[in-house]
Amino acid sequence: MPSAVSSSGGALAVLRFGRFAAMGVVAALILIAGVWASWGTAQYAMLTKGRERGTVEVTWCGATTCSGPYTPLSPGSQPRAKVVLENSVAVEEGRAYTVVLKPGGGEAVRAGSAGILYAWVPLGGALLLASVVVAGGLLRTRAGWVMALSGTALLTAAFLVV
Predict the structure, then answer these.
(1) Secondary element (H or E) of residue 97
(2) Distance between CA atoms of 77 and 63, rounded to whole angstroms?
(3) Transmembrane ranges (predicted)?
(4) DSSP alpha helices (H): ranges in 51-119?
(5) DSSP alpha helices (H): ranges in the chain?
(6) Which of 66, 139, 158, 161 fits 61 for a cystine, CB–CB 3.0-4.6 Å?
(7) 126: Cα separation from own chain's centroid
(8) Contact predicate 84/67, CB 8 Å
């Protein structure tokens, strides 16, 4: 009989390890997806050295994009009649925004603290989602709370600044 008890204890340990491994992978994938989604825009908003910087006066907004004339602020940048900016709650027709142009010069990303915080919003959402997995699946309550509060702080700061 002792062998049956020890084998069931080993099976439970394997199952417990499998659950922790699976939840760890899920949490890691959620966070990697959040960073990946954010970095596509954040790299332009954060790493502005050597990039064209200027302002866009938004004159037209459609369903997904806004556009307007570009006025350069950085040396070597050329004025453009039309630059496209993503239409979001942070962009209004008739206002001017400081932007960084993506390579190719037709697409712009908001610059400054508002642009940086807005670019990292997907990571804030990923932190909130992963916090549930970490706290519930990995049984790391404190780490889950830290992640949830970090995500909430990021989303709140983006909401207030943008």
Answers:
(1) strand 96-101
(2) 28
(3) 20-39, 117-137, 143-161
(4) 112-119
(5) 2-46, 112-119, 121-132, 141-161
(6) 66
(7) 8
(8) yes
